[in-house]
Amino acid sequence: MTEDTPMSERVVVALNVLRHDIDVLELAAHLAARKRARLVAYYVEETNLIHLAGLPFAMEIDRFSAAERKIDLPRMMRTLRTSTEQIQKTLYQLNERLHIDTSFRTLRGHFVSAVMSEIEQVDVVFLSRRTEPHKSHAAKRAAHYPLWVVFDGSAESERALRMAVDLALLESTGLCVALPAATDREAEALRRQALECCAPSGAVRFVSVYPFDASNLLRSMRHTGCRLLVVKRQNGGFNKAISETVPCPVVLV
């Protein structure tokens, strides 16, 4: 797609207290600016996590000290409030810097299903990855990883491929195209179709993934790392599995 190519009116970013990924919000904002789209941030308060924090026996283990402590509901709510305030501040700064329309909304429910119930068919949806404190060196490495996209020959996957090419150019990174192909002949046919529907520029690698599921895709991605995964929007179960399995942001097109 070029800047003049019509696309969705909204670029949606989903975040929560465990997926507080400001980098992906920044990337989505640049995409929205390039495509003259509206940037919408949804902050999902996980219902199960809030319910758990209200139980008297709920405990958490600090990942660094290994010390146990009670999950404190007031402390969790303060963390949620601080998190949402930071995201809203970032949205304001992006609005000022990139001159894009932005909006923010809080949802409650499961991370993927809550967002999917709010989006429109034409929206491009960024699902943030899980972020970990004191892991900035890992984030810097990920910035040099290629972007991955799944292409199965369908019209929906063609749209995902075009979006992946756009994002790879925006990120100045390579592109890996996963082909759900059982044979070399099927893989070659998909490769040719991918090149015909959207001739990618820059470094492109085609990888056969069969049988195709979230775990096999993850195994293939481990060889190169992954900056971002772009997939066509499918049933909620697949979207949920991909979002919870791969260690990178996921873009649903």
Task: List the topology elements.
Blueprint: E1 10-15, H1 22-35, E2 38-45, H2 47-53, E3 59-61, E4 68-70, H3 73-98, E5 102-108, H4 111-116, E6 124-127, H5 136-142, E7 147-150, H6 155-171, E8 175-179, H7 184-197, E9 204-208, H8 214-222, E10 228-231, H9 236-245, E11 250-252
Parallel strand pairs: 1-2, 1-6, 2-5, 7-8, 7-10, 8-9, 10-11
Antiparallel strand pairs: 3-4, 6-11
Helix pairs in contact: 1-3
Number of helices: 9
What is the rounded Rg? 19 Å
Cα shape = globular
Provide the helix percentage: 40-55%
The chain-level mean pLDDT equals 83
| Physical arrangement of strands within the biggest beta sheet | 5-2-1-6-11-10-7-8-9
Q: Give the topology string: H per helix, E per strand.
A: EHEHEEHEHEHEHEHEHEHE
Low-confidence stretches: 1-7, 57-68, 133-137
Sheet-strand content, in percent, reads: 15-25%
Can you offer a commentary on this structure?
This protein is α/β, with parallel strands linked by helices. It contains nine helices and eleven strands. It has helices at residues 22-35, 47-53, 73-98, 111-116, 136-142, 155-171, 184-197, 214-222, 236-245; strands spanning 10-15, 38-45, 59-61, 68-70, 102-108, 124-127, 147-150, 175-179, 204-208, 228-231, 250-252. Strands 5-2-1-6-11-10-7-8-9 form a nine-stranded mixed beta sheet, with helices on both faces. A two-stranded antiparallel ribbon has the order 3-4. A hairpin with a 6-residue loop joins strand 3 and strand 4. The longest helix has 26 residues, at 73-98. The two termini are 13 Å apart. 34% of the residues are buried. The model is unreliable at 1-7, 57-68 and 133-137 (pLDDT under 50).
